[in-house]
Amino acid sequence: MKGILGMSLKPGVKTTFVIGLPRSGTTLLAYMLAGGGGVLSLSEPFLSLSARRHRLLNWLYFPEILKCRINPPMDCNEEDFLHYLKGFSNKLGLSSLVIKETYRLAPYLENRALMNYIATCGDPVAAIMRHPYDTASSTLLWARHQLRGVPGIVNRIVVPRFPEFSDDRQVVEWFARNWVSFADWCKRTQPFIIKYEDLVRNPGPALEMLCERCAIPFTPKMLDNNSPRFFSGMSGDPGGMNKHRKKLNVRPVGRSDDLKPEFLDIIKKTCGEAAEEMGYTL
Questions:
Q1: In sequence order, which residues have a C-beta less than 8 Å from that of residue 80 and are 6 or more positions away?
Q2: Residue 109: CA atoms inside 13 Å, Cβ hemisphere, count?
Q3: Residue 103 — pLDDT band, cuts 50, 70, 90?
Q4: What is the Cα–Cα distance from 267 to 104, expressed in whole angstroms?
Q5: pLDDT value, residue 250
Q6: End-to-end CA distance of the chain, in Å?
Q7: How many whole angstroms separate alpha carbon 167 and alpha carbon 148?
Q8: Which of 46, 143, 61, 59 is nearest to 102 (CA)?
């Protein structure tokens, strides 16, 4: 079987998608899976493909691909790009491919068409959910660091469609709409759902169940923060856990105290019903 660029695709490459909101634990889950034998875990390759302006940025976004002397395609549809990603996984001699992507509404590089393709492409999908208050607080912190001042200017030069929010309220309003839309997507598409809180409280059982569903051999190295990873990509924080030597078995931190009362009201009003259906109390 041959795909784009004439690459041969051997049978047996298993692909698993990890989907969640920004700041909900997608990087953590993809990082843990990357500890398995023969697993390549990519952080948001579809976002990288849509965001990069020219091939020079491949040196930043696709370093492992370039080592294989395979040039990422500039323009292709989702199906051809997925076939391409599986192809270079073969080239690396790996058997499993984990693709982490975040669910985003406008103005943050909206990608619902990609999400709908992922839901119907036939490969297993794991969705990670996190309490709206915690996710909102983390999203606010990220926005303050990445979207404003000099970092925001640089990000928008590299990625012209990178979002710009005028104040914290706009960030919270966008987050709330995004949370509800993602919850609705999960309800419609029925992925395997993992709660961030369960993952950090007791990672072993949650990860073993996911691996069984996705035909990825579970190994205790997935829970070992000092085990080397084959994790590559544009966004997320693939080196953060090794850098800080954080333990995986930690209590999730409730962050409602970090949010102003008006922000809590926005989240309750927008997310309340969907949150209850997902087992969260606001």
A1: 3, 4, 73
A2: 20
A3: very high
A4: 17
A5: 54
A6: 50
A7: 10
A8: 46
